[in-house]
Design a protein that fits this description.
1020 residues; alpha/beta; Rossmann fold; 6 domains; seven-stranded mixed β-sheet; six-stranded mixed beta barrel; 30% helix; TAT_signal_bac_arc; 4Fe4S_Fe-S-bd
C-alpha cells in the first residue's frame, strides 16, 4: 500500500526559499573542492592543500561518473509511421527472391528487408535455384549503402541531368551514323536474355555498331576451346557430386575458377556414406582452397602442369605424345592418370591452365572417360569474353576508328594490363560513356559518367545456364539519381515505356507454362535444357602443341583472385577488406606468396613480433618491363618452388575511402590475359606490418582439436579407434570425460534445445558464413591497426592448420614418440619442430564460434551475471549488464569472446559503414549495436530462433525441421553447418549428434558444448 507521507531532514526544508536548501540541491559537496589547485599543473599538484577527504570525494564522484558515461549506450528516439504502408508490418521481415550477376559473381538469392531496407542476403533454396552466395555476394548488401557511389550522372566531370545525358548520347550516335563512325558497346558478360536482345536491336538500327564482351578475369581460352568442339561460346557446368575421382590441374574449382559455385556438389561426394567418398588429386602452383581440400596435392609450376596434363591424356586415351615432366612428379601423376582411367565415367578432369590446347585436352579426356560429371547440357553462360576482340578494340581506339564508346559493367582503365594503350585510345574517342556504380578509374576519364543503380535497386533477368531463367527485382527504391543501362537502351532503340515493361513482355516468351508473377515470386524458372554435341577435333595436335611448353627461367608469377576481394569490384567494402584470407589468415593487404625453400634462399621471412603482430620482408618484382617495389611477402607453405602468387583486385584509388586504398594493382602484370608470367624476384629493404588474425600455423600434434582419419581406417576399425574419447580420472579410475561434470545438469528434454553440427569433411573454408554473421549480427569493422593488435571482432573464425610433417597423422605419431624433454627426440625440441609447417602440408579448416557450453566456464566467473545459459541451450549475453571485466574471455578455453575496446559505432576513428547514416542502414534492428567496454560473442542467432518460434506459434503449427537456422548455417552452401533442435528426434541435427563421427571440441575440459564436430576423413 502506497504512502503519501512526506518527511523532512530538518526544519529548514519547510522553508521553500531557504538558501541552505538551494545549496544542498545544487551541490553534491557543500564545500567546494579546489580541483584546479591540484590538477591544474604539476607544481600546484605538489603544493596543494587539498585535504585527503576532499580528494577521495572528488575521485569517488568522478570515477563513478566516468564509469556511468562509459557504459551508457546511445539513445535514439523512434518515430512511428504517419501513414503505414499496408505491405510493411513493423518488426516483421519481408523477403524478395532475386538473382545477381555482376560479370564475376552470380547467385540466386532471397533478400531480407526490414521496414523497406535490405539488410541481409540469404540463399534461394527453391528447386532450380542452384547457385548460392559466396562471401562477396553476402557482403554486397553493404555495397548498396556505399557513400562513395556515383549519386547522379556527370558530363565532363560536372553534375548533369539525365535528359542532358540522353541528348548527349543520341547526338553522338547520330553524328557517328552520319560520318560512318564506329559505335562500340563494351560490356561485361551479361547472361541476360532481355539485355542481349536490346543490344541486338540497337546494332540492327545502327549498322556501324558492334558489341564487345570483356571479362576482367578472362576464361577466353576455355571458351575458345569449347566453341571449337561444341560450336557454342559457353562453359561446362560440372557436377562433382557424380564423380568418385577428381583430378584438377591448376583449377581452383572451390574458389573462383570458371565462376565457382562448385562447392555444393563437391561436398556431397566428400562426406563418407556407406564407406565411400570421392578422391581428389590437385596439381597446382599456389596453395588454394581446392588444394587444401585435396587428398593428394602436388605443388608444381604451370609448365610442369602442362606436361602432366599431356601425360594424363596419354594414359586415358592411349596416345603417345612426348612428355618432358620432372621425374619427381612423374610417378605421382602417372598414378593419378591410371586411377582416372580406372574410374571411367565416375572420373572427371578439370584444368585452369590459360591455354587453348590445354583446354582442348580437358574436353578430350572427359569425352574419353564418358564422364558423368562433365555436363554438356545446361551450359554455363557466365563468361563469354574474347581476348582477341578486346585487343582489337584497343587497337581500333588507338587508331582513332571508334567514334562513340558506351561501356557498362567494365573498368578497363583499372583492369587492363595495357591500361595506358586503352587510355590513349579513349582520348581519341569522340564520346565515351561509362555506366558505372562508382566514379571509378574509367568513369573519371569518360565524357559521360552515368550513375547506375545497385542490383538490389534494379530490374533484370538472367540465364546463368542454358534452359534456366531467373529474375532480378528491386528490393528498395533507388537511393540516388540513377538509371539502368537497359533503360537508356530502350530509349536509344526508340521504344515506348521503360525496361520493366520490356522485361515483362520479353519474359512471356521464355517462361511458357508459367506466369510472370510466379517467376517473380520464386525468382527462378527451369525450362527445356538443351544438350550439346561435339564435332570431330584433332586433339593430338593440341597435345603436341602443349608438350612443347618449357619451364621459364627465373620465377613464375601466378595471378589469382582472392576469396574476399575477387576481381576488385567491391574494394570499398570494409567487410571484405577485413575478411581474413582463408589460407594466409591476413586481412587488409595484398602480397606475394613465396615457397618456404625460396624464401630461405632469398632471405625472406615472416615473424611474430613483440606486440603479437606479423611482420614480413619486402621484395622487388619485375615482369614485362613493369616493376613493383616493396611488395610485401608471405611465406606460404604449399607454394610450388620457383613460383610466387599474387592476388588481383587490389591497388584501386578512385571512389574508395583512404582506408580501403590498399595493396598493389596486379592487373598491371596480367599481360595478354595470361595469369602466368615470367618475372625476376629479389629481396628489398624494409619490413611490412601485416594484419594477421592467426599466428598459430600448425596443430603441433594436438589431434583432439581436429580429429581425422583415413577412409581405410574409418571402414575397417571401430569408432573408438579413430574417434577416441578423452579419459579423465574419477575416484582413481579412468572414465570418459563426457561422463564427468562439475555441476548437475538441468533436464533439457523439455522444449527446444539447439545444437549446431559442423562437418569438417564438407567445410571448404570459403568464409561465406563469416560475412553472413557480420550482416546478421551487426559485427563492427575495426580496421588494420586494431586487427594487428589481435582485436578483431569476428564472431566466427575459421581456423586453418597445416601439418608439420607431410600429414597430420605423422604429426600425431611424432608427438606420441617423444622421448624425454630435451634433445631432438624430446618434447621440447620436438614441439619446436612441430611449430613449422611442411613445405607441402595437409590443410584443415575448422569453424569456431561460441560453443554454447551447457557447463559454461564464462558464466561462473561473470561478477554481474551478464552472461548466462538459456533453457534452449544458448549462452546469452545481457549487454547492458556487462561491465567489461573480461573474466569470461580469460576463462573461455575456445577464445571466442570479443571485447569492444572502443565505440565503433558513430566514431570517426573507425570511418567505416557504422560511421555514416547511409552505412548504418544495413544494421539489423533485431540485434543490439554494442558499445565500448562490452564483451560480445556468437549468440547462436537467438533473434532468428525466437522469430521462428513466434511465427509458428502465430500460425498455430509445429515447427518443421530446417526452419531453425543461424546466419552461418543459412549461408553454408556445402551443408557443413546444420542447425536444429536436438529434442526433435526426427531432425537432421538429432541424427548427427548420434553419428559415430561426432565429437566436441576440447571434450576433456568438460564444458559440454552445444556445437558438435564430425571427424575429418581423408581418402588417401
Amino acid at each position: 500500500m502506497s504512502s503519501n507521507k512526506k518527511y523532512w531532514k530538518s526544519v529548514e526544508e519547510l522553508d521553500g526559499n531557504s538558501s541552505i536548501v538551494e545549496a544542498l540541491k545544487n551541490n553534491e559537496f557543500v564545500e567546494e573542492i579546489p580541483t584546479e589547485d591540484f590538477l591544474g599543473n604539476n607544481e600546484a599538484l605538489s603544493s596543494s592543500a587539498t585535504t585527503r577527504r576532499d580528494f577521495l570525494k572528488y575521485v569517488g564522484f568522478t570515477t563513478a561518473a566516468a564509469t556511468l558515461a562509459a557504459c551508457e549506450g546511445p539513445v535514439h528516439k523512434s518515430i512511428p509511421y504517419v501513414l503505414q504502408p499496408e505491405q510493411i508490418i513493423p518488426g516483421i521481415a519481408d523477403y524478395y527472391a532475386t538473382s545477381v550477376f555482376d560479370g564475376f559473381d552470380f547467385a540466386n538469392l532471397l533478400v531480407k528487408t526490414r521496414e523497406g531496407r535490405p539488410i541481409k542476403i540469404d540463399n534461394n533454396t527453391l528447386a532450380g535455384a542452384k547457385f548460392s552466395a559466396n562471401a562477396r555476394i553476402h557482403a554486397s548488401i553493404l555495397s548498396l549503402y556505399d557513400g562513395m557511389r556515383l549519386k547522379e550522372p556527370k558530363i565532363e566531370g560536372k553534375n548533369a541531368s539525365w535528359s542532358a545525358v540522353d541528348s548527349k548520347i543520341k547526338s553522338s550516335i547520330a553524328d557517328a551514323k552520319a560520318k560512318g563512325g564506329q559505335i562500340v558497346l563494351l560490356t561485361n558478360t551479361l547472361a541476360s536474355p532481355s539485355t542481349e536482345k536490346l543490344i541486338a536491336d540497337f546494332i540492327s538500327k545502327n549498322p556501324t555498331a558492334k558489341h564487345v564482351i570483356y571479362d576482367a578475369v578472362s576464361e577466353s581460352e576455355a571458351l575458345d576451346a569449347f566453341e571449337t568442339v561444341y560450336g557454342k561460346r559457353a562453359l561446362v557446368d560440372y557436377d562433382f557430386s557424380k564423380a568418385s575421382l577428381i583430378v584438377s590441374v591448376g583449377a581452383d574449382f572451390l574458389g573462383d575458377w570458371q565462376g565457382g559455385s562448385y562447392d555444393s556438389g563437391y561436398a556431397q561426394g566428400r562426406i563418407p556414406k556407406a564407406g565411400k567418398m570421392s578422391r581428389h588429386f590437385q596439381l597446382e602452383a599456389n596453395m588454394t582452397l581446392s588444394g587444401a581440400a585435396a587428398d593428394k596435392r602436388l605443388a608444381m609450376s604451370t609448365a610442369n602442369q602442362k606436361q602432366a596434363l599431356v601425360l594424363i591424356y596419354n594414359i586415358v586415351t592411349g596416345a603417345s605424345v612426348p612428355v618432358a615432366l620432372d621425374a619427381k612428379f612423374k610417378s605421382e601423376v602417372t598414378k593419378a592418370g591410371q586411377q582416372l582411367k580406372s574410374a571411367g565415367s565416375k572420373g572427371v578432369l578439370v584444368s585452369g591452365i590459360q591455354d587453348k590446347n590445354a583446354q582442348l585436352l580437358v574436353l578430350a579426356i572427359n569425352q574419353a572417360l564418358l564422364s558423368e560429371a562433365f555436363v554438356t547440357t545446361g551450359l554455363r553462360q557466365i563468361r563469354k569474353g574474347s581476348n582477341q576482340k578486346v585487343a582489337q578494340l584497343v587497337a581500333e581506339m588507338k587508331a582513332g576508328n571508334v567514334h562513340t564508346l558506351i561501356m557498362s559493367g567494365v573498368n578497363p582503365v583499372y583492369t587492363l594490363a595495357d591500361s595506358n594503350s586503352f587510355q590513349q585510345g579513349l582520348k581519341k574517342v569522340k564520346t565515351s560513356v561509362a555506366f558505372s556504380l562508382k566514379e571509378d578509374e574509367t568513369a573519371l576519364l569518360s565524357t559521360v559518367a552515368a550513375a547506375v543503380p545497385h542490383y538490389l535497386e534494379s530490374w533484370g533477368d538472367l540465364s546463368l545456364t542454358e534452359g534456366t531463367y531467373s529474375v532480378t527485382q528491386p528490393t528498395i527504391r533507388p537511393l540516388f539519381n540513377t538509371k539502368q543501362f537497359q533503360d537508356v537502351l530502350v530509349s536509344l532503340n526508340g521504344l515506348g515505356g521503360n525496361f520493366y515493361d520490356y522485361l515483362k513482355a520479353n519474359a512471356a516468351g521464355i517462361v511458357a507454362g508459367s506466369s510472370w508473377n510466379k517467376v517473380l515470386h520464386d525468382g527462378v524458372f527451369v525450362g527445356v535444357i538443351p544438350a550439346s554435341s561435339p564435332s570431330s577435333v584433332d586433339y593430338t595436335a593440341a597435345a603436341n602443341g602443349l608438350s612443347q611448353s618449357k619451364v621459364a627461367q627465373g620465377f613464375e608469377l601466378v595471378l589469382y583472385t582472392k576469396t574476399g576481394m575477387g576481381d576488385g569490384q567491391q574494394a570499398n567494402n570494409p567487410w571484405l577488406q577485413e575478411f581474413p584470407d582463408p589460407l594466409t589468415r591476413v586481412s587488409w593487404d595484398n602480397y606475394v606468396t613465396v615457397a618456404p625453400a625460396d624464401a630461405k634462399t632469398l632471405g625472406l621471412s615472416n615473424a611474430i613480433v613483440a606486440n603479437g603482430g606479423l611482420n614480413g620482408s619486402y621484395a622487388t618484382l619485375t615482369a614485362n618491363g613493369v616493376t613493383f617495389d616493396k611488395v610485401p611477402v608471405i611465406v606460404q607453405p604449399g607454394q610450388a618452388i620457383g613460383t610466387v602468387g599474387m592476388a588481383l583486385g587490389y591497388g584501386r584509388k578512385a571512389a574508395l575511402k583512404e582506408e580501403m586504398q590498399v595493396g598493389l594493382n596486379a592487373y598491371t602484370l596480367y599481360k595478354g590475359f595470361n595469369n602466368v608470367q615470367a618475372i625476376t624476384f629479389v629481396k628489398a629493404d624494409g619490413e611490412h606490418e601485416f594484419a594477421c588474425v592467426q599466428g598459430q600455423k600448425t596443430l603441433m600434434g594436438r589431434g583432439d582439436i581436429i580429429k581425422e582419419t583415413t577412409l581405410e581406417i574409418f571402414n575397417t576399425k571401430d569408432a573408438e579407434i579413430w574417434n577416441e574419447q578423452p579419459m579423465v580420472s574419477l575416484d582413481h579410475k579412468e572414465v570418459e570425460a563426457t561422463s564427468v561434470g562439475l555441476w548437475d545438469s538441468f533436464d533439457r528434454s523439455i522444449g527446444h534445445h539447439f545444437n549446431l553440427s559442423i562437418d569438417l569433411n564438407a567445410c571448404t573454408g570459403c568464409g561465406a558464413c563469416v560475412i553472413a554473421c557480420h550482416a546478421e549480427n551487426n559485427v563492427p569493422v575495426v580496421g588494420k591497426s586494431e586487427i594487428r593488435r589481435s582485436r578483431d571482432m569476428h564472431w566466427l573464425r575459421i581456423d586453418r592448420y597445416y601439418s608439420s610433417e607431410s600429414t597430420f597423422a605423422e604429426d600425431d605419431e611424432k608427438k606420441d614418440n617423444f622421448k624425454g624433454l630435451f634433445g631432438k627426440e624430446g618434447s621440447l625440441g620436438g614441439f619446436g619442430e612441430l611449430e613449422s609447417p611442411s613445405d607441402n602440408p595437409q590443410v584443415a579448416f575448422q569453424p569456431v564460434m561460441c560453443q554454447h557450453c551447457n557447463h559454461a566456464p564464462c558464466e561462473t566467473v561473470c561478477p554481474v551475471a551478464a552472461t548466462s545459459h538459456g533453457r534452449q541451450g544458448q549462452n546469452m549475453m545481457a549487454y547492458n549488464r556487462c561491465v567489461g571485466t573480461r573474466y569470461c574471455a580469460n576463462n573461455c578455453p575456445y577464445k571466442v569472446r570479443r571485447f569492444n575496446w572502443f565505440l565503433y559505432n558513430e566514431n570517426s576513428q573507425f570511418d567505416y559503414h557504422m560511421n555514416d547514416d547511409l552505412g548504418r542502414m544495413v544494421l539489423n534492428p533485431d540485434v543490439n549495436v554494442r558499445s565500448r567496454g562490452v564483451m560480445e560473442k556468437c549468440s547462436m542467432c537467438i533473434q532468428m530462433t525466437q522469430a521462428t518460434i513466434l511465427k509458428a506459434k502465430n500460425e498455430g503449427r509445429a515447427i518443421v525441421d530446417g526452419e531453425f537456422q543461424t546466419a552461418c548455417s543459412n549461408a553454408c552452401s556445402t551443408g557443413a553447418m546444420i542447425f536444429g533442435d536436438v529434442n526433435d528426434k526426427e531432425s537432421k541435427v538429432a541424427e548427427l549428434v548420434e553419428d559415430e563421427r561426432m565429437y566436441h571440441l576440447l571434450e576433456h575440459v568438460g564444458t559440454k558444448p552445444n556445437v558438435i564436430y564430425h571427424v575429418k576423413v581423408r581418402n588417401t
